[in-house]
Structure prediction request, 437 residues.
Amino acid sequence: MVLQWCPVFWPRQSYWSEFPLEGIEVEFPSPKTDAFPGRPAAIPPFFWGGESRSRSGKLVGRKPGQHSFPIHPGYLEVRDLIGNGTVVDLKRSSFQARGLVRQIFRGIEDVSDSSSWEDMKSLSYLEPGPTLVQLRLSPELESWKAAQHAIGNILPAKGAGLSQASDKVLEILKAVHWPEALKTNNALFGCGIASLLMRAADVPTMFSNYVTDMVFYYEHGYNYIFPSLESLLEKGLADPQALRTPGGRERRKAICVGKHYIQGKIALERQHKTHLTNISARLGRRTAQIISMSESSLLGMAAEAIVRGFDPGAVMNDLVFSSLGADFVDIGCDLVKSEVMNSFLIVSDITGTGIVSEDVLRRVYDAYAASWPKARKTPARPQCGADFDEVFDEQYRTTGLCRPLDPEYACNGEETCNRVYHFLDCYQEEQLLRELW
Prediction:
């Protein structure tokens, strides 16, 4: 089924007239009744703007505190940190994060270039609050790394993400004439696809949201590689119609908050980059969550989701966990570049000794994954789950705590589990789903 947008939105095209958006159609069939066991089959319209209007035609949102989705149990500590998830709450949290990051980097000025490993290690325990520690690979991991490099197993450079997506992809998405920064593989298959998955009030708003979410790539230097990105971002932030959609204004205010944080952190990294090799931050659990929320660079998405009725605690918990996949892949390179906030390397299991070993990395991975396996010969039995403030203690050390998953949510634990096969079987006519998986 092709969902058409309400004609009342088409005058907005003039705001983004230099980037043709005509012809974008989204096929969004209703799911089969048994595709999601125990869940309703109904899915809101892809472009929900027509259903969000008052009798006067004005786009309206929900009243503060009025939720259309469940409030989930748990997330106790992150709820305390984020409150109701308003822009004011996000700004307060980000302000705290900026202060904590400045405190971390001030530690570099307290250690001279000639300081030894023992000097750095001692400083990390004498100083209160977040500090820096020096790390090194365990002898076993060091030997493994050398052996892998010797046979040519070296991770490729990340430059491929900056290349333009294929002509076929751009044609399918009607993105051929979009700004260059938005057509890169990193951006299009990151924030671009995310905007499609989250839906919007209409097509121009979806495009505008994608533009503003490009602030995520400031940490990747996109604003230097694509000089026009800054003016494009400012245009998206000032989009008059997007500002009037439910959550649109909050989304853009939160993006400004997040941009302030990430630019401040980048400036500190640039200032101290010659001193950051093999250095990591040492944080407590609460501090780590405050910083991780802003580290996500996705505060805009979070703000809109909360205004539209999603559970603030669950949303913020997702932000805390949003960097884990990339951080795990980046452990090796983050050790030797200016990134001191890798979410695996800041855990006290590692910063307490300064040694990065396979055993500790597996322990930290299982804590973040709530005890799901990384690369095991057999799946975890039983499958478990736990909150952030259960798998880590106040010092940000793994506890090993987890609870067996309710049978309603458990699966057989295989690489492609029975839950996935069940979903794919419900859509046998959609072979692309199976191929993409």
About this structure: Residues 424 and 432 are 10 Å apart (CA to CA).
